[in-house]
Amino acid sequence: MSSIDDRDDRDDQDGSEPDPNAIDRPEPTGSSATIKDLLAAGPTLSVEFFPPKTDDGMATLMRTVEELGPLELSYVSVTYGAAGNQETRGRTRNLVVDLNRDQPYPAMAHLTCMSHSRAELDALLEDYRAHGVRDLLALAGDPPADGSPVGGDFTHAEELVELIRSHGDDFSIGVAGHPELHPRSTNRAEDRRHLARKIELADFAVTQFFFDVDDYRRMVDELADLGVTKPVVPGVMPLSNPQGVHRMAKMAGARFPVELADAVESAESPEERQRVIVDAAVEMSQKLIDAGAPGLHLYCMNRSETVRQIVDQLGLRP
After folding, report:
1. Does some domain include residue 132?
2. Domains contained in the chain, number
3. Bigger pLDDT: 271 or 87?
4. N or C, which end of the chain has less CB nearby within 10 Å?
5. CA–CA distances in Å: residue 227 to residues 36, 66, 197, 230, 232
6. CA–CA separation, 50 vs 11, rounded Å?
7. 3-state DSSP helix/strand/coil % of the chain, to nearest 5
8. In a domain, 12, yes or no
9. How far apart are CA 18 and CA 8, in angstroms?
10. Active-site annotation, residues
């Protein structure tokens, strides 16, 4: 998914009425349930992590994992890095295996086919299977920023999904969706037909980040018209780092919320800045919930504070 994988820096027992926004989750099952299972059981709450480059970054992420524990996340995902970044790929594998083993939720590995041989992908899939990792987000991947040639036996996410399927029914497979169209797309109708085919090969989709809920609604309606019934989980990016998000938005072909960014940057105190960021994400998330989204996938940039505040304001957890 463009830019999603280029972020590696980055009951009520008191007698009161139940919260209408509360997400009902099945009984905790550790990581034995796949994301496909969890989505079938009801709305999900999840976050994305990226594999840190340094020991300090890993320590920060582990604190974040601990701080997010009370939210009882449905699952997490871990990005894979730009094409050709072998070091990042190894860190992804290790982080996914560790989280899947140590946490009470499944960890979904982002996996790109660009610059991989079939033999490399076969070996990685069997390695994941051997370590109990059953959830994968199948992506084409982004070419290197320097424009250098990309090799490999596959170029499209659909090919990767088919390869994963050839390894049996062990894996739960997600694919990427772009509410504002894929950045390399030139035809809306063809873009949606392509996305519909991709989702039908997989089990669910997770979207690239976006900032206009109408884009998500329109995409879901267009996919429904094409017969898609599988869940499409919206990705929500709090604007904690406007400059960084602006860079990623350019890569992803997403419209950047200039007015919101200006409000964040002009805040007169850190507290006001955080309030603007959280309020905007809460408003968007509530609209997505009201639109019937099958869950929320929050891009947390390996930090917990904003996610915890968003979830608290939405009333998604006790």
Report:
1. yes
2. 1
3. 271
4. C
5. 19, 40, 10, 9, 13
6. 34
7. 45, 15, 45
8. no
9. 39
10. 48
